[in-house]
Automatic annotation (TrEMBL):
Pfam families: Acyltransf_C, Acyltransferase. SUPFAM superfamilies: Glycerol-3-phosphate (1)-acyltransferase. SMART domains: PlsC (SM00563). This is 1-acylglycerol-3-phosphate O-acyltransferase. CDD domains: LPLAT_LCLAT1-like (cd07990). The lineage of its organism: Eukaryota, Viridiplantae, Streptophyta, Embryophyta, Tracheophyta. Belongs to the 1-acyl-sn-glycerol-3-phosphate acyltransferase family.
């Protein structure tokens, strides 16, 4: 992290961490006091509370860095988004594809009920991971023997969810890198499988489980394909902090759940068939399809939330100066320096956790190696 980035990350990090701790505390209080009495009332309250934190990241995309998200969808899909439960499947290509999903959810009024299936380590991330844990995210260990029951209980918990939710599932199971793509190609070729060019081979067990357990109360699957134009830099958290913009194209296709096959094998094959088609077209022709571009605008709600937190933080700092002999108090100075160091470390952890290069590395996929079967499981 260079000097210019630090000068931006520290003040924004202070804002995010202090407001995040307040949000986490409020979530914890309602989790203890309200959830045992009424789970659905807790969920409605938590949706409002957690958006006070997550909108800060939306502001980072919309107002600070100016990253533009262009959405392509048919009219029926666009009109139904945010009005129904949905299972989202998406390629996992960039560092911030999860954040692009949040931007989309915010536009359709379901940011606080946008959920995901994520690796277990994510719930231990300071502030952001804790907020996800309080919000019914499903955390897995990437071991089917352990995750099968976790997924089942996680899906069943959502049956009585009191508002439209989106549950995101990255069926590749890990973020895309060229190294992982090469491993997937080496795995596919000797087995007579289609050799992937733009995605990793889908791990379909989680998707099959989601469809089987949720098809009775989730009416649709949103097949999302995300791509960055070749003439645009890939957006990252660090680039956004540095106010460097980019463009992300997002195509959304809605599939009614009732149209999916009934058998597990059929569902798995359906997932494989639809997953790579749009990305192949995009990189061949530079466009997804003939779907119409939909303007999702740039609401001022995230800007309002950041201004609110900033005013609250400035007020607190002013009161601190008034109530203490700040410059003459070594304990206060020591605490301040320690706090700033912790802010820097925490923001470094959060930024690095979003980087594709630091995601789970691929295993060697030689034909006789039994580890290959664990890299890309259905």
């Amino acid at each position: 992290m260079g000097i210019p980035a630090v000068l931006v990350v520290l003040p924004l990090g202070m804002l995010f961490i202090l407001s995040g701790l307040i949000v986490n505390l409020i979530q914890a209080v309602f989790f203890v006091l309200v959830r045992p009495v009424s789970k659905n009332l807790y969920r409605k309250i938590n949706k409002v509370v957690v958006e006070l934190l997550w909108l800060e990241l939306i502001w980072l995309v919309d107002w600070w860095s100016g990253v533009k998200v262009d959405v392509y969808a048919d009219k029926e899909t666009f009109e139904l988004m945010g009005k129904e439960h949905a299972l989202l499947i998406c390629n996992h290509r960039s560092d911030i594809d999860w954040l692009v999903g949040w931007v989309l959810a915010q536009r359709f009024g379901c940011l606080g009920s946008a959920l995901a299936i994520m690796k277990r380590e994510a719930k231990f991330l300071p502030i952001i991971g804790w907020s996800m844990w309080f919000s019914d995210y499903v955390f897995v260990e990437r071991s089917w023997a352990k995750d099968q029951s976790t997924l089942k209980s996680g899906f069943e918990r959502l049956e009585d969810f009191p508002m439209p939710f989106w549950l995101a599932l990255f069926v590749e199971g890990t973020r895309f890198t060229q190294e992982k793509l090469l491993a997937a190609q080496e795995y596919a070729s000797p087995r007579g499988l289609p050799v992937p060019r733009n995605i990793l081979i889908p791990r379909t067990k989680g998707f099959v489980s989601a469809v089987c357990h949720m098809r009775s109360f989730v009416p649709a699957i949103y097949d999302c394909t995300m791509a960055v134009p070749k003439d645009q830099p890939a957006p990252t958290m660090l680039r956004m902090f540095r106010r460097k913009s980019s463009l992300v194209n997002l195509q959304i296709r809605r599939h009614p759940m009732r149209e999916l096959p009934e058998t597990a094998d059929g569902i798995a094959q359906w997932c494989k068939d639809v997953f790579d088609a749009l990305l192949e077209m995009y990189y061949a022709k530079g466009v997804f399809s003939d779907q119409e571009h939909r303007d999702i605008l740039r609401p001022k709600k995230s800007l309002t939330v950041v201004i609110f937190w900033a005013c609250l933080l400035i007020f607190g700092i002013v009161m601190l100066f008034k109530s203490t002999s700040f410059l003459a108090s070594w304990p206060v100075i020591g605490f301040t320096v320690t706090f700033l160091v912790l802010v820097a470390i925490t923001m470094q952890i959060l930024i690095q956790s979003s980087e594709s290069e630091r995601s789970t590395p691929p295993s060697k996929l030689t034909q006789p190696d039994p580890m290959s079967e664990r890299l890309i499981k259905k």
